[in-house]
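Task: fold both queries, return tokens.
Query 1:
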Amino acid sequence: MIHLLMTYQQTLDYIFSKLPMFSKLGSKALKPGLDNISTLCSILHHPQTKLKCIHVAGTNGKGSVSHMLASILQSAGYKTGLYTSPHLHDFRERIKIDAIMIGEEEVIQFVEQMKPHIATIEPSFFEITVAMALDHFEKNKVDIAVIETGLGGRLDSTNIITPVLSVITNIGYDHVQILGDTLELIAAEKAGIIKSGVPVVIGEKQPETEPVFVDFAKTNQAPIVFAEDDYAVVGWQYSQQDLVVELSDKNRTDHKVYHLDLPAQYQTKNLLTVLASVKKLKEIGFSIEASAMVNGLKHVKKTTGLHGRWETILHHPRVVLDVAHNESGMKEMLNQLEVTSYHHLHLILGMVKDKDVEKLLSMLPKLATYYFTNAHIPRALPAEELRIKASEKQLDGLVFSNVNEAVKVARAHAHKDDLIVVCGSVFLVGEVDRS
């Protein structure tokens, strides 16, 4: 038993300040390659070799797909680990077993145990959290762990695992300065999670990326499935707060209807990926009844705590949080606006410096009221700089020192039938006060 020398807050202060953190510093925090995570896992007696894992990568949707899969597996009776990033409010959101966050004492114990090694190895924040997750899942003997990549795939710390199933949701332009400036190059980095003989599910078939995935799978003798080859969305509608999706299985004549408590239209794409993944899991020996599918999808937020995906937190006027922060994500959010009823749109916007800010701003509607702000991290683009860049795109608005002040002013000026959307940065959404 390790004698605890630090409080939980002191432990967080230590890892946030001592270790390079991508969410704060951007690419300066990256330590590409698997050397550090291999060393950390060796110290921990190789927990990754004792786990069954599902590895999820992709430009967008990988968080939603990870949470959906975890919810379904929990509903099917499996003790399920879930590792995702970044967190919105509490560091411990990153590491859960059956929706229960890792305990504060466990975080303290792990960090104190690893402190001497941190001094010599000098890992990144992400490398330590991956090691912590794998150690936590192994010690608690999970049946299966769903592991979401951080950035890319090939050189991502999570790629230390050899999963039972790999999943790649889609490919879009994001982190181009790190992953490459073409879809083919980005796909090659994501395809780095494909392992020898391990089946892989690809969520979206794109002409630029399909050959990349097929070649990687062939080289690794990995069975490959494109979700849209097996399933198609027949239709969707809203029922209260649920998204109701009708799907066809291309190998069967009957249709299935699923209710998702994740209401954004873009979740229909993620659902196809999830269905193809579950089908493959069943083929390799997992027992997942139809009822577990239905229940797991209907209660994703409740079961796993997924937030920030077209999430309504207030009504009259309606306030929605969405973590759209890159080109693909912004397109999906704008598509969602097209099918949403409202009187006038208020956009509360904050971005980070290393995104293609001009490109994202050029996509946004001019017939909206804008509120420019920023998350309180060094990587954030200052709100005044964002306002200036936006004004060049004929997007005008006021600057606010924090997102909650912007929400307060927007609510005060909005009609009860207006729509207020907070977007542009995961970290901005994480700072919204829900109380």
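Query 1 returned. Query 2:
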Amino acid sequence: EKSYLYYVLSFAGILFYSLLYKGVGTLYLFSSESMTSLITYAAFIVAVPIFFLALFTREILQLSQYPKLHRILNIYLVIFVLLTVICYLFDLNRLRSLFTIILMAYLAFVTFYAFIKGNHQARFIIIGWISFFSSGLFMWLSSMNIYNIFALYPYYTETALLFEAIIFSLALANKIKQLMK
């Protein structure tokens, strides 16, 4: 099942990003010189899990049954990769976030569309997306010094990602159950 592979790759990327974002990587995994080198690849560290999350969403919702949405997603994924490379080469970190947000918003739209069309997996994915988006939104707000939820709830990101992982795992289990039937 390709969706499971994409999910594992996405979750591994999210875990890696979280380790760096929360400082655990600096404390236990990487030297300060290594962290400095890793920061130069921030565009990829953010883009890789989102890219695999898009592939996961495409597969779990079987977007090929919605040809226009499927084609738009595939085109944007190619553009997303190109824009990520351009952001890396020209140090356009502010724009990198914009392209990621556009992709995530499109994935949310696609998921809601699939839900309206009666796609059984979409109900799980919507709940997972809400958790994931809230975590990403609060991390972004914190990084822009707009609002820091982590002062009130220091483990919000970890809790949201754990919840998202459980929900996406339920979606995978449900899909495998349906395939077996």
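Both queries returned. Flag for query 2: The two ends are 15 Å apart (CA to CA).
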